[in-house]
Amino acid sequence: MKINHNLNAINAHNKMKINNNYYSKTMNRLSSGLKINSAADDSAGLSISQKMKTQIRGLYLVERNIRDGIGLLQTAEGGLSEIENPSLQRIRELAVQASNGTLTLEDRKHIQKEINELKDGIDDIANNTEFNGIKVLSPPTENIPVIGTADIIFIVDNTGSMGPIQTQVANNIVSFTQSMLSKGITELRIGVLSYYDNTYTKHEFSGEKWTSDPLAVAQVLNEISITNNGSYENNMQAIGEVVNHYDFNENTPGKNNKHIILITNEVGDDNANIDVAKTLLQDEGIQLHGIFNDSFTDLKSVVQSTGGKLIDLSSLDWGANLSSVIGTHIGESSTIIQHDKMQTIYLQVGPNFKQNFKIELFDARTHKLGISDLSVETIEDAQIAISTLDKVIELVSSRRSRFGAYQNALEHLNNSVSIYKENIVAAESRIGDADVSEEMMNLTKFRILLETSQHTLVKSNEVMNQILSFLNE
């Protein structure tokens, strides 16, 4: 017998603490229904589960977004249906009637009055068909905010002739970037591509092709090495390289926010690819600005064809001039009114970035349909009206079909989202939800072990009492 250390009691006490901990965790799982109640329960499982929950919550909202989109399309299609029949069909009937030679001028004037009323009705439908305050058959009448955004790519010639002015170029581009940010441009994305002798380098900023950090731009520019190779025709090829390999933002309404700035000191007179570059830039809505010497007549024609600006490379502070030029094109955050531009609706149909569905709305007002001045006051006018109305009815029918196709696509998307949500909920449940039957089994086991360890601890303490009894004897 030992007095100083009751080893049996210590062992029983340790076991009791362990069993009590397991018992408490099991009780937590049963009371919460969750297998993972803290990061200590399963750190990897917790991370996976939280990512899945983010997706699940997004998917619930996506389903609502899709249903709202379907509702918008049904509203737009319903409005077009009323415009097509009876309005357009009735106008055509009247045009056919007015084509008859048995009618007098007075008769046709009465027919014209009814047609005018029907046209007013079409405009009423187009202007008043709304979904959640959004006009779906006519442009919005409220002011549309224009947010200052810009994608700007510098194409830097790194041939030998640029060596003496490399630092000047870097400083001016950094100055330009700082100036643009100070103008209140809410989203500025700068990219840099350097080239020589059919070799193009798309420089990255911490793994990204875009940055708005002037210091990051400066670091990249200072790391560009100058070579002795290069030719004039590489300029146009570099433009094609930029257009094909950089993901530009969408243009802001009313503004041209895609810009390429070509910086070169190379002299040449080869016209190769000039026309191709012009077409490519114009098709993509990109403005080309040139920072080069006065002798580049061919490059000037490309710049001017896109509405860009020419700046003298020898100017020490061309960065400030460039900022002034492009800042005017982009504009600070402001408000303009777009009376004749239909909205494009983007539905968020996925839980992640840029998972969008594009809906192009249709302007159904009479002047956009081409019937605002429709006349049947002469037989010739009535004949022209019949031909015009046939085309308009076909146009409206095709737009109704497009809205129907949008709706079918969204319904398929909704079914896909529902299946995806069901599967990801099931997967998250397997990770995070507690199995009640298993936890009840564990609860019974740990309760018995806890009671056993408590009983053992009591018995171990009784041994000490036996020592006292022995000493008393």
UniProtKB/TrEMBL annotation:
Predominant subcellular localization, coarse grouping: secreted
Subcellular location as annotated: Secreted; Bacterial flagellum
Name of the protein in its database record: Flagellin
One matching Pfam family: VWA
Domain VWFA per the UniProt entry, residue ranges: 151-291
InterPro entries on file: Flagellin, Flagellin_C, Flagellin_C_sub2, Flagellin_N, VWF_A, vWFA_dom_sf
Role played: Flagellin is the subunit protein which polymerizes to form the filaments of bacterial flagella.
GO cellular component, one term: extracellular region
One term of GO molecular function: structural molecule activity
Matching CDD domains: vWFA
Keywords on record: Bacterial flagellum, Cell projection, Cilium, Flagellum, Secreted
Sequence similarity: Belongs to the bacterial flagellin family.
Species in which this protein is naturally found: Acetoanaerobium noterae
